[in-house]
Amino acid sequence: MPNSIDTDNVTIHHSAKPLIVLGVLAAVLHGVFLFLLVPALNHRVSPFYSQDGFMDGYDQIATNLVEGRGYRFYSDTGKTLMREPGYPVFVAGLYLAFGRAFTVVKLANLFLAFLTAWMLTWFGRKVSNQLIMVVAPPLLFLFHPGTLIAESRGGVEILFGCLIVLFMLVVYQAIENNRWWYYLIAGAVLGLTVLVRSTPLLFPVFLLAYLLLFERQRIPKLASCRNIAVMVVAMVVVLSPWIIRNFKLTGRFVPTASVLGVSAHAGQYICTHFSEGKPWVMLDRDAALERSKLALEQGYHFKDTYYQAFYSAGDELSFSSYLAKRVFTEYEKHPWLCAKCVAYNLFNFWFAGKSWVSTGMNMAVQIPYLILAGIGTWVCVKNKRFPMIGPMVLFIVYVVAVYVPILAQARYSVPLIPLLAILASIALLHFRGRAWMGDRSTLVTADQASPASALAVCGPEKQ
Length: 463
Hints:
463 residues; mainly alpha; two-stranded antiparallel ribbon
């Protein structure tokens, strides 16, 4: 990690045994929450999405893949571009290897969650070797209600979040070592991540801007440009089978999925009809009904479901383009509406659930995490250690910026929980460092404390 902290003077020697015991206890408690408590409570909190089931038709695509009917939602409709292939192929692999019991999917989510938690310990150690930075990030991630709920469903959030953390880990190694082959690996991981969810597709552009701005004294500009070019090439190579397949189906260059128009329409519809007082999920369903009417008016032939299932991949792509053009033309005519929907989606990204109850619970959980993450970021900025957290903060801001002009709900923020957990843990370590000074009424920072008890997080640079 760039500009990591030298904590030699504040090392707490701890054996591995307590950490192993803590890990086993966390796994047991996590399993109890995942398989017993969350399914029992979920239907009361959010009856619109039941546990032990899939979301967004991923299982339908996986089933058709396993049964040899190709990448489609229904056996009698055309091949689809509506979903990125990463998660359906992952589920199809689970089906082939272990059968179609949904418990297998939940166990796979559990494994991925703990793999993510293990990677978070690496970030924690790079910040500080204090015990709290080793255990707090994984625990804050694992026991976040959003993580538990996402694990109990068949959706992309857990796999996507795991790949995001892996990508950020390789990016930090690449920046620290400034070797092109690290960026090659980072690009390959980014390609896999984009195959699961296309959101990070343009992140290399923003990462390049970050390197040119914050790492310009350490890394030559030409080297930064070369490295990001290597990353982009590696990403495109990984994406190429999907791109080629889509070109053969539609004759167009489609590196992601065809869902943009549908998402943009849903986001605009929900925003403009929010005053009707309906819960989010009912507005979303009304938006789907309007899309069906629009598709009929345009003369398309399709199976009428939430996601209109077309009998031609070309029709699917054309209808999505029609919806996107319709939405963004409306925003161009009424900039105030665009600003209103962006502000609305900014709230929705962190808090919006399918019902008013779930939205309230999301707020109760997310607000403390966001406050702690903000404090952790402020501590690093104040002590001139922003480059240590810069790439992950940039990634968080980038992802939010991608969603808010289109469509957002709290489910979309779940893959960012691991990064929020790291920032929140920095705040916890900061507060603990003050407590060690024995005076909770004053703000004691690392540079004011004695070396033996100083807070070893985002401290000032050594002279």
